[in-house]
C-alpha cells in the first residue's frame, strides 16, 4: 500500500486529520508492516476521539442556546 500512495500524501492527510507526530509515525510503521487491522484500530481510535470532542462542544453550544433563550424570555 505504501508503494501506491505517496508517503507525503499519507502524512499530510493524517496531519490534516489532527493526528500527532507519534500517531502518524505509528500509522506509517503499520502500513510498512502491512498490519492493516492494527492501522484501522488506530485510525478508528483517533476518529472516536474527534467525535467525542464534537459531541462535547455540541453540548456546550446547546447550553448556551438554552441560556440565551431563557434570558430573552425573562
Question: What are the salient characteristics of this protein?
Answer:
74 residues, mainly alpha, 3 helices
Describe this structure in words.
- With 74 residues, the protein is mainly alpha-helical.
- The chain is built from three helices and no strands.
- The protein is elongated, with a radius of gyration of 19 Å.
Write the layout of secondary structure elements.
Elements: H1 7-16, H2 21-32, H3 36-73
Helix pairs in contact: 2-3
Subunit arrangement of the protein:
single chain
Provide the gyration radius in Å. 19 Å
How much helicity do the residues have? over 70%
Ends distance: 61 Å
What fraction strand? under 5%
DSSP strand count: 0
Class based on secondary structure composition and strand pairing: mainly alpha
What overall form do the CA principal axes indicate?
elongated
List the secondary-structure elements in sequence, H or E.
HHH
For the largest beta-sheet, the strand count, sense and barrel status come to: none
What's the pLDDT, averaged over the residues?
93
Weakly predicted, low-confidence segments: none
Total DSSP helices: 3
Short description:
Helices cover 81% and strands 0% of the residues.
